[in-house]
């Protein structure tokens, strides 16, 4: 298999096993994986909602709506298809994976976060353009008072676009599976925390200089409260650069008790 080292480490064994699977069995495995990710995200979100000091910034969303559940199912199916497509590209040698955990893997994780943050800002700003918004992204903003699974409540075209962008990135460079796993975990954590409708981080953490640049959960909550602002995901860099950071974000971030978003109650 291209890109696999000869060492018999556990990661290599897993990759060898995945390479040997029948497409049907891998498709089933991919479906189970993506269903598990939705379940894990929901669980992590509900735990975070119960953290001491978590401050609600938007109203409780109440019961899950059928439309939201349908979109979550749709996104899970699309993500499964993207996973299978990635497997085909990997077994065909288009995507190359490395099994080693080394300094290069750490550098790759940093590059992935920065590159994906920039690309997702551009993509997010694009789907908020007036000609596109009603046809694609408005569906996600139906759920202004978000809950953990709202992360997965996407228009199918958005899910396909994100997945395609991810596959292109993977095809450009031979990434370490450790970097990919760490990025996937970070993406899930940021996504879930941004769709809680609360700020769970303690004031001392939010006030640290790191969180001037790293997005707090309140940042994406603010985007759902007012879609004109806070288009970034992992950092505030692009919002600060292009003037799309919500004007009260830094005050709310530093506040001992963050105020709910205006108009949220």
UniProtKB/TrEMBL annotation:
The chain crosses the membrane at residues 25-49, 69-89, 109-129, 149-172, 178-198. Keywords: Membrane, Transmembrane, Transmembrane helix. InterPro entries: Fatty_acid_hydroxylase, Sterol_Desaturase_Related. One of its GO terms (cellular component) is membrane. It is found in: Membrane. One of its GO terms (biological process) is lipid biosynthetic process. GO terms for molecular function: iron ion binding; oxidoreductase activity. This is Sterol desaturase/sphingolipid hydroxylase, fatty acid hydroxylase superfamily. Its main location: membrane. Residues 110-244 form the Fatty acid hydroxylase domain. It comes from Actinoplanes philippinensis.
């Amino acid at each position: 298999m291209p890109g696999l080292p000869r060492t018999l480490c556990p990661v290599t064994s897993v990759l060898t096993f995945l390479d040997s699977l029948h497409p049907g069995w891998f498709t089933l495995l991919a479906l189970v994986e993506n269903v598990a990710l939705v379940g894990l995200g929901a669980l992590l979100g509900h735990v975070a909602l119960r953290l001491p000091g978590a401050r609600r910034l938007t109203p409780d969303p109440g019961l899950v709506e059928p439309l939201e559940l349908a979109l979550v199912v749709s996104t899970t199916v699309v993500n499964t298809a993207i996973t299978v497509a990635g497997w085909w590209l990997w077994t065909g040698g288009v995507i190359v994976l490395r099994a080693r955990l080394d300094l290069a893997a750490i550098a790759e994780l940093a590059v992935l976060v920065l590159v994906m943050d920039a690309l997702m800002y551009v993509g997010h700003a694009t789907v908020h353009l007036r000609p596109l918004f009603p046809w694609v992204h408005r569906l996600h903003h139906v759920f202004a008072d978000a809950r953990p699974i709202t992360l997965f409540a996407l228009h199918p075209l958005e899910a396909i676009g994100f997945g395609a962008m991810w596959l292109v990135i993977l095809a450009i460079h031979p990434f370490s599976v450790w970097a990919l796993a760490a990025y996937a975990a970070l993406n899930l954590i940021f996504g879930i925390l941004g769709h809680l409708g609360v700020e769970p981080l303690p004031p001392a953490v939010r006030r640290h200089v790191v969180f001037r640049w790293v997005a707090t959960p309140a940042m994406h909550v603010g985007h759902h409260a007012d879609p004109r602002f806070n288009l970034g995901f992992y950092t505030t860099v692009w919002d600060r650069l292009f003037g799309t950071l919500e004007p009260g974000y830094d005050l709310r971030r530093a506040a001992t008790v963050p105020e709910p978003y205006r108009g949220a109650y």
